[in-house]
Amino acid sequence: MTRPTLTLAALTLGAATTALTPAAWAQQDATAAETDAQPPLAVQCGGDFASFKAAAEEAAVAQGADPAAAARFFDGIRRDPEVIAADRRQGVFQLPFIDFSRRLISQARIDRGQAMSDKWDDVFTAIERDYGVSRGVLLAFWAFETDYGAVQGDFNTANALVTLAHDCRRPELFLPQVFAAIELSQQGGMDPDTTTGAWAGEIGMVQMLPEDILDNGVDADGNGTVELKTSAPDALTSGAAMLRDLGWRAGEPWLEEVEVPDDLDWSRTGLDTTLPVADWEAMGVTPRDGDWDGADLSASLLLPQGRKGPAFVAYPNFIVYFEWNQSFVYVATAAYFATRLEGAPVYDAGNPDPGLGEAQMIRLQEALQARGYDVGGADGILGEMTREAVQAEQEKLGLPADAWPTPALLDRM
């Protein structure tokens, strides 16, 4: 189970700086069983907003918040309908990997990343030494989240968090962030009246939630405060600290493009199968560019658009990306972009079979649910749970089990 916090918010696409929604909930509704396992919430979501605020304030004080700080925090809080509207807009994550990655990754963004790597070389060198997180990884998040700090969001953070905690879609994710925000405001790390960020409550250049700031905020520039909105050293080092806290393995690779043979057993692809790299090599899988990055590691074989499209091996660090963000297409794109920023070539797009449009994807997900698969709801987004169900059904039907849903599969079902 992924931890009940979300750590990225403002996704910017292409060279334009239009802030969009995070990928973090592409399949969040799939976790009904996990939600049932959560401890009871201290405050009931929904209902009258003023009553919810009063109950949340009381619960915060009961958990140890200073009564005056809690009262000040909730005093000016208002429900923000734009936050709810933003939360419901997830259409960009319905794009397939090739379209999505081409939309996010431009030459201008690569050039800017290289310039930022040079500008903050001392910071990245210290991070690589002390945290074991490669600069490409942080540069990719920095680029996608805020266009290297240019677009950090203008939503009032306190309003956003309380609005999402009140909304009954994911209160178990956001109510703890409200309590953390109160603590952060007590420490001077945010001002409930003036601090702004992404619509989901993340703050700063790499978009961190209050709980993560409390746990992993680092004063890397040594000025006595953690300033994630204005200090690149603080933001990048705090992001590295969070990745290490999430389980990042120091100095190891995360993703590598490969070439695959035509006769591979496609049912062994996907994140649910992990094998030593030597085993993949024995099956005819080879690195596309040079030697293996993790020859002594285990890895999964990913085919974001099936056996005729790009192919990658995903090392253990790749899984950490899902703790930061839960959308498969976002994670795959962020991990790939990190390799590009460190010199990897443009992937071989191949010639994938046509995929499904939104309406077709919803029909497929409904059909999979009718057959007993848990795909996290029929939302039109090809997340990891849907991919696993597709692969299982392909195998049953005697089709190449590469987890890529096609019109032919939909017709068979």
UniProtKB/TrEMBL annotation:
<dbReference type="InterPro" id="IPR023346">
    <property type="entry name" value="Lysozyme-like_dom_sf"/>
</dbReference>
<keyword id="KW-0732">Signal</keyword>
<dbReference type="GO" id="GO:0009253">
    <property type="term" value="P:peptidoglycan catabolic process"/>
</dbReference>
<dbReference type="InterPro" id="IPR043426">
    <property type="entry name" value="MltB-like"/>
</dbReference>
<dbReference type="Pfam" id="PF01471">
    <property type="entry name" value="PG_binding_1"/>
</dbReference>
<feature type="signal peptide">
    <location>
        <begin position="1"/>
        <end position="26"/>
    </location>
</feature>
<dbReference type="InterPro" id="IPR031304">
    <property type="entry name" value="SLT_2"/>
</dbReference>
<dbReference type="InterPro" id="IPR036365">
    <property type="entry name" value="PGBD-like_sf"/>
</dbReference>
<feature type="domain" description="Peptidoglycan binding-like">
    <location>
        <begin position="360"/>
        <end position="413"/>
    </location>
</feature>
<dbReference type="InterPro" id="IPR036366">
    <property type="entry name" value="PGBDSf"/>
</dbReference>
<dbReference type="InterPro" id="IPR011970">
    <property type="entry name" value="MltB_2"/>
</dbReference>
<feature type="domain" description="Transglycosylase SLT">
    <location>
        <begin position="49"/>
        <end position="338"/>
    </location>
</feature>
<protein>
    <submittedName>
        <fullName>Lytic murein transglycosylase</fullName>
    </submittedName>
</protein>
<dbReference type="InterPro" id="IPR002477">
    <property type="entry name" value="Peptidoglycan-bd-like"/>
</dbReference>
<dbReference type="GO" id="GO:0008933">
    <property type="term" value="F:peptidoglycan lytic transglycosylase activity"/>
</dbReference>
<dbReference type="Pfam" id="PF13406">
    <property type="entry name" value="SLT_2"/>
</dbReference>
